[in-house]
Amino acid sequence: MDLVAIGTVGYDSVETPTGKAEKQLGGTAVYLCLAASYFCKVGMVAATGRDFLPGYLDLLQSKGVDLEGLQQLEGETFHWGAKYHQDLNVRDTLFTHLNVLLDFTADLPPAYREAPFFFLGNIDPALQLHVIEQAKNPVFIGMDTMNYWINSEKYRPNLMRVLQKVQGIFVNDEEARDLSGEYNLVKAAAEIHKMGPQHVIIKKGEHGAMLFSDDSIFFTPAFPLELVDDPTGAGDSFAGGFMGYLTTQKRLDNAVMRQAMVYGSALASYTVEGYSVNRIVELNQQLVDERFQAFYNLMDFKK
Amino acid sequence: MDLVAIGTVGYDSVETPTGKAEKQLGGTAVYLCLAASYFCKVGMVAATGRDFLPGYLDLLQSKGVDLEGLQQLEGETFHWGAKYHQDLNVRDTLFTHLNVLLDFTADLPPAYREAPFFFLGNIDPALQLHVIEQAKNPVFIGMDTMNYWINSEKYRPNLMRVLQKVQGIFVNDEEARDLSGEYNLVKAAAEIHKMGPQHVIIKKGEHGAMLFSDDSIFFTPAFPLELVDDPTGAGDSFAGGFMGYLTTQKRLDNAVMRQAMVYGSALASYTVEGYSVNRIVELNQQLVDERFQAFYNLMDFKK
Description:
The structure is a homodimer of 303-residue chains. With 303 residues, chain A is α/β, with parallel strands linked by helices. Chain A has helices spanning 28-36, 54-62, 125-134, 147-150, 156-163, 173-180, 185-194, 234-247, 254-271, 285-299; strands at residues 3-6, 10-16, 19-26, 42-48, 70-72, 78-84, 91-97, 117-120, 140-144, 168-172, 199-203, 209-213, 216-220. In chain A, strand 2 and strand 3 (19-26) form a beta hairpin. At the A-B interface, helix 7, strand 13, helix 9 and helix 10 of A face helix 7, strand 13, helix 9 and helix 10 of B.
């Protein structure tokens, strides 16, 4: 196993300016694994309920995602609903039914514990910590989190422990501000560096993403698209593409980190072209490389 | 004269999250000319009132800006006031005292009419049209505009005439949406292309700028700064740097347009580091090139 991704698997019901998708496949671990599947062998650590459609399991397996770490628990599958504004960077969460996630333990199958790369999707920091403790010899651990954990007196101490043990953190601009107490993102990244991660990736949705590493800053725009159907999963596809690409590299130097940012952006840009996972499941290596090249054309200048 | 810039000269009173600047030098033509002054001989076409401080004229001349086209009219100088939010992309205009601008005619001195490059700052489209009619042999005309002209039944017909005669338009995202009737910026740029300009530059403030030319899209981020004192003039500094760089080039091909975008972004990034023109007046060629190189480091990736 090259990469192990921990997160949610469930149903998403979203309404966007272009349409609606009811109770479709979603969840952070799903987008993470599908994006990473174009680069490496990825194993999913998550939980579903008894009502989870077997067809979705087949779909994930057909993309090469390893499901040994996917637990089926008693009860209903996680279900999340949201409505996006015309400004797709803004959405209202309509409901979050945690369901079986309340019983999720994030235990890793033995084979997963040997993996070199881990990504800790946005879940309870205690579970993220539990995963780290099971990893035998991790090379690079990436993590996501959210304001719910950041701003809670109960969860924040564990979150700070997780931060000390990861190499990369992926947060959006608002989360970076909450975590650091700094509004300016350059200052925010500097504060978050002090909390542990060597690489701070700040995702800004349609405004792109920034990588803060040591003294180097790298910027990738979001790919300019004529039509965005559904932004759900863009951030996780970004992280999955980023981590997946890292697993293919011998040295994790700054040049590789920058390439990973672009592969992450490429995967995210595909995800938003369709509802749910419709677009990201139909990619192949050539399409991924074509979008990477398109980013090059978008950002290239010489003198 | 390499470049002629038409716009406003006046006093700005701004309040930003970091402080206040009362009745300082401002106006679109001022930022345009100061930014362009690092590249070429630029002439200013604008109007001041009798109350305009001679020291400001000296300052502009000390930077090599030609003031033959600057008219001194009876009455008070243009004065604009605004307050910025913590999100510096949002500001409330507190007042706009047009004063002598109501009598501004945009007549060009004879020497200016021979210039190859023109930039039409955000003024009444009838005046922009009047400038175009005086230009004897223009190579590249750039323009700015704003929602006030775009959304007015009275001004829009002239604005559309101007659009047919320029090579480049510089607008912010909101203006691009209003002008085109399209929310998506890729679609908006395509619609604006049809109105005339071959190059559509959409400025997104702290989220960067995009160049849409034929089938090529180029993106530049805003430079990540730890401190932004005053965003006023960023857009005009961008246009001034862009146009100034063009005047130094023999061929205006896509590679040059991309370099111009980066020089524009470099000048804009310096302007916002200080209140009013405080930072942009103290630059030199080396600092401009250093920031250009810093943009390269920010955006460069290879594979």
